[in-house]
Design a protein that fits this description.
about 230 residues, mainly alpha
Length: about 230
């Protein structure tokens, strides 16, 4: 249970709260990195407040409570992000693969320090919040990296980004309505793809395809979660 709360805190701090300006600032200034990293323990503390005084893990016979684990997670997050920034400064391409590697490391750290004492099944509200962040902010960032890897000058994180995020969330929300309202979302996504086929849309095939897949995956998952 605590693991999933930490995951939620991580995604909010790493994507929702890491705006374009923060992401750029942390690459050129230590204060930018500090601001970004500090957001993580704040989120972890917020979502695991009632469990911070309990023992989360034992390390070579030493009992580590929640406060200690949160501090260690934050320090390891800083180490991973600092290493990534230094690699980029030295010429390593900041690609989709690098993004996914970075996230895998962060999630592995959370798994290492999260206790299993309170169970491993995620709470409904936590899982719902994770899906929302993934569909809104993480999908936008993933589209950005994939488009750049394909040679496009991605605009998904430009001025229209919040409109596209809202569109995905609204379409996924149709899956939560009993009956066949989800077909409205599928029809709208089909229309967007048709518009791209007719070259009447500014969005790339990568953008629309990934957005469609994200809406379908999250929409079906939420439907099973609430209506199954």
């Amino acid at each position: 249970m605590i693991f999933w709360r930490l995951v939620l805190g991580h995604f909010i701090a790493d994507f929702t709260l890491q705006t374009n300006k923060v992401a750029q600032w942390k690459r050129i200034s230590r204060w930018g990195m500090v601001l970004h990293v500090v957001c993580h323990p704040i989120m972890y503390i917020l979502f695991s407040w009632n469990y911070l005084l309990t023992v989360w893990v034992h390390f070579h016979g030493v009992a580590l409570n929640g406060w200690t684990c949160v501090v260690l997670i934050a320090l390891l997050h800083w180490a991973e992000d600092e290493w990534r920034v230094r690699c980029i400064r030295r010429g390593t391409q900041d690609s989709t693969a690098f993004l996914l590697w970075d996230q895998a490391v962060h999630l592995a750290v959370l798994m290492a320090f999260a206790p299993t004492l309170y169970g491993t099944h995620p709470e409904t509200w936590v899982l719902t919040a994770i899906f929302v962040v993934l569909l809104a902010h993480f999908t936008s960032v993933l589209i950005f990296f994939v488009e750049n890897d394909l040679g496009h000058a991605s605009t998904v994180l430009a001025q229209g980004k919040y409109g596209w995020m809202a569109e995905r969330l609204v379409l996924a929300a149709f899956f939560l309505i009993p009956g066949y309202w989800f077909l409205m979302a599928i029809g709208w996504m089909g229309w967007l793809l048709f518009q791209r086929y007719r070259q009447r849309s500014e969005r790339t095939w990568a953008h629309l395809t990934m957005a469609t897949v994200a809406v379908l995956v999250v929409g079906i998952a939420l439907r099973r979660l609430f209506l199954a």
